[in-house]
Amino acid sequence: MQGVEKIIISDCEGPISKNDNAYELSAHFIPNGEALFVNISCYDDILADVFHKPGYAAGSTLRLILPFFKAYDITDEQIDEFCTQNICVIPHIADALSSICVDAKVFIVSTSYEHYIKALCKVLNFPYENTYCTKVNLYKYTVSLEEKNRLRNMAQEIAQMPRIKIPPTAVSFADFSTLDQAIIRRLDEIFWSELPKMNAGKLLTDVVTIGGPQKADAICDVVKRLGVPLSNVMYVGDSITDVEAFKLVSESGGLAVSFNGNGYAVKNAAVAVLSESALVTAVVADLFCRLAKDQVLKVLRFWCRAVLNENGISITVLKSLFTGYTNTQPNVQVITPQNMEQITKESCAFREKIRGENIGRLG
Question: What distance in Å separates the CA atoms of residue 310 and residue 302, rounded to the nearest whole number?
């Protein structure tokens, strides 16, 4: 590779794996855990994207759910075992990462718990030292039987709440329905008044999730460590936790790529990928490593086998990408104000198809 080194940084759950590990842990270990997680996740989106709560980062669902892990006696060892046994990667991700590592430095920046990232690194033979993730040690915290019962009652109360409907144009509390305002008030009481007074509430202050601004901070740390400008970074993400990372990279001249992303991702990325296979990421990364950003976008505007081959993508890779390995042809589009709404609809629908409706609809 000629010139200054390029860096490819990816979120984990979505671009690399199909899991939503924290959702799956909640569903497996907590009664009505799916509804509990979904309702907290929706509340998380509201705090981060609508209210812009000071000091609050998107992805804090992974922090807010932890007191309830303690309530149901979930241990670090159980999480380790569950993660090891339930990893589901995007097809061809091992080959894609191996290919990208030839020409670039590769890092994973994820909101996921470290238990999951360590298990994933073993599966993919990826260096754990090249990852940033949410550090958790449940063993450090103890709760009494009385507190466990209180937490369990809270968990079931949250799980039984109707899911809040976020109006598309919502910018304040007044934009929500009367019912949803009451739910938000109750969740505020639970998370910012009642839980902080409990031993398990220490998890809310001790644990720092790697989401939102922390992902942007991680990218800054990577380029500082390697002495490479931000313009040489390609970032791949899929959700609300990637918005700040997308903005940082885009504003600095790098390339922001949404991989099967939701609306938050598509609206903040330069390129949208809809694919069952991670080989698309490898192809885009290959172009980014060899060409200027403007040239990369020019090639991607005419995404097809012939144009990719003309721009140095091997016939072998293209054969794997376009024939026989996936049920759906990969779709790559450069995002513009004119096509953003349509791409968002297509990407959200594809995301639900690939990852399932429950996970696909999470922020």
Answer: 11
The CATH number covering residue 300 comes to 3.40.50.1000
Is 128 contained in some domain?
Answer: no
CA separation for the pair 326, 309 (Å, rounded): 19
3-state helix, strand, coil in the chain (%, to 5): 60, 10, 30
Rounded to whole angstroms, the Cα distance separating 228 from 231 reads: 8
pTM of the model: 0.93
Domain span at residue 224 reads 6-16+92-112+212-360
Please state the length of the chain.
363
Summarised one tens digit per residue, pLDDT across range 138-147 is 999 999 999 9
Strands (E) across 163-299 are located at: 233-237, 255-259, 271-274
User: Which SS3 state, helix, strand or coil, does residue 276 take?
Assistant: coil
Coil vs helix vs strand at 332: strand
- What is the secondary structure of 182-224 as a DSSP string? HHHHHHHHIIIIIGGGSGGGHHHHH-----THHHHHHHHHHHH
Enter the tokens of residue 257: 């790529």
Q: Quick one: tokens of 177?
A: 């329905």
141 shares a domain with 254: no
Work out the end-to-end distance of the chain between its first and last CA atoms, rounded to an integer number of angstroms: 37
- Of 206, 232, 249, the residue that ends a domain is 206
Same domain, 187 and 226: no
Instruction: Let me know whether 200 and 289 are in one domain.
Output: no
The strand pairing partners of 234, in sequence order, are: 8, 255
Query: Whole-angstrom Cα distance, residue 357 to residue 73?
Result: 28
The rounded percent of the chain whose pLDDT value lies above 90 is 87
pLDDT per residue as tens digits for the range 272-318: 999 999 999 999 999 999 999 999 999 999 998 889 999 988 888 88
3 state DSSP class of 274: strand
